[in-house]
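Justification of computing resources. Each target in the renewal requires a structure prediction run like the one illustrated here; the chain below, 322 residues long, is used simply to show the kind of job we budget for.
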Amino acid sequence: EFPFEPGAEWDDLGVDVFTNTVVVEESEGWVANFRLLPRNLWYFLVGRHFGFVPFFFPGVVAVVLLLRARREARAWQWATLGTAVFVAAFLAVWMPYTWSGGGGPSGNRYYLTVYALFLFLTPPLRGVTPAIAACVGGWVFVGQILVNPFVSAKEPYLAPERGLLRLLPVELTMVRDLPIALDQPRARVLHGNNPRVQLYFLDHNASLPEPPGIWIYGDRRADIIVRHSDALETITVTAESPVSVDLSIDIGGRDGRIALEPGVPGSVTIEPRGVNSRNSWAYLMQVTVTGGFVPKLVEVDSEDGRYLGAAITLMATPATAP
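Resulting structure tokens:
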């Protein structure tokens, strides 16, 4: 076996698998990089998958303590904080599509090398309250990852599906680097025709496309990224269900509602707001269903035990070029 067995040495692997240079994906230019900077800094701070607040919460406590004790703070502490902020902005500008390190793991592995600086921001403590706050706050966000680290390392897309992480914004500037990309069946799913869009299912609250559509599970909220090479002027969501259910749909901050009667399709057209990055447009669609049914309890010969709400299909309309 490598590296001892003849024919399995490093040079026999057949491809170049090493480098002594930092490879940065070619961007759309510095103007585009700076255009994404405000959004990337927001994601850098509170992003669902890579944000500083959820994954480096003790650092947040250190900054708060420094600001509270700002009159006693020394010049080198402010310089240290400025360095940490500068590195964050530098990564967001230099690597606007992969400032977290890429590869799919939760947290920001590029910024991890800077994290130690926040220890020096902490002023002298007069009690254990700050330490407790740092531990509790960090545990609230990443406790589920620490409880089962091996599963979390193998399937990093599971943790953001639940808990407080689900309340945070999705990093739409770096869709291809999100942990869900490691779950191949639920990433880059083609849907619709003329145009065909890519779907990224960020949780298990919706099924993959099947007849008669994408099932949103009952009394759940499904988060799905809709991605296309061109900007979309409208997205029409058509839904149907054999029982009465209510759907609430939000796409990029624009919302719509559908009240379904049994067996009667309904639809709503939304003018979404998306994020232009990496030569494509990404839209976060959140669909919430109130009510549902279990097919095997209401349909003859059905063995489907899922609690389903409504089946949806999408029809996108590209924006007209100016």
